[in-house]
Amino acid sequence: MTAFKFSRRTALTGLAAAPLVGLASAPVLAQSAPQGPQIPRVSRFGVGNFEVTTLLVGSRTVENPQGIFGMNVSPEEFSAASATAHIPIDKAQFFFHPTLVNTGNELILFDTGLNGAAIAQAVEMAGYSTDAVTHVILTHMHGDHIGGLMTDGAETFGNAAYITGQTEFDHWSGTDNEGFANMVAPLAEKMSFIGDGASVTSGITSMAAFGHTPGHMAYRLESDGQQLLIFADLANHYVWSLAYPDWEVRFDMDKAAAAATRRNVLGMLATDGVPFIGYHMPFPGVGYVEARGDGFHYVPHSYQFLL
What we know:
Layout lengths: L7 H18 L16 E6 L2 E6 L2 E6 L11 H10 L6 E6 L2 E4 L4 E4 L5 H10 L9 E4 L4 H4 L3 E2 L2 E2 L5 E5 H8 L4 H7 L6 E4 L4 E3 L2 E5 L8 E7 L2 E7 L22 H18 L3 E3 L7 E7 L2 E6 L7
Parallel strand pairs: 6-7, 7-10, 10-11, 15-16
Antiparallel strand pairs: 1-2, 2-5, 3-4, 5-6, 8-9, 12-13, 13-14, 14-15, 16-17, 17-18
């Protein structure tokens, strides 16, 4: 009987051949169909003693992004900035994410997304019932922020009190806007109206960020030495709006005021190192701002808030 000699070459040959033997004897199965991209729906982290959850209630692809962003710059400048950021110029992905803040005493929802069914499902995926929401804060009254206030004519958050800026409410109440009439006006008797620098509850303060709409507001969270700014639609894209704050955005109602507000708030965040949540940033929408040249740079959070 001849002895088998084990060598490195024998081992490598055997390892290479072994999978082929298994594959040859395995049944032939039909290929699985591609499932497509998948984006998480809920992201939770801590800011001091607050528990903060961003909720993805929708995402869609939009063509011709320069019809929305950078309307006052040349196609060449828009293309160059996009190429540097490795993003296409023919389409963009939009994200919509309201934010839940559990203070320990209140469960506060900032904005309500596009419709009642989507926000209710997202809140439930985060582990809460819609009845558990104690306050709904509206940063402004564009349709993708107020669309979830009502579901089939009834309040989506039946136990909630509502808070919004006085300037914002006064503007829209003087229009014939259908979204305001259907979603906000029926709740007016349950609303509290605030201005710049108002304390919503301990550790949550309003900040005027006008321009995107006449009364657009941001909200600063402060707990146990940590801070975070919920800045809503201050900047609607991490490159074409945040990185280039002077680029005009179609949805900004006062484009000059919106640009000035972006420069002011983003400069503050960069100087102070305060993180933020942006409603339309790539999910989960949480990150930091760095000053870069004449503009800014978006730094997505990694694990800072998990520690």
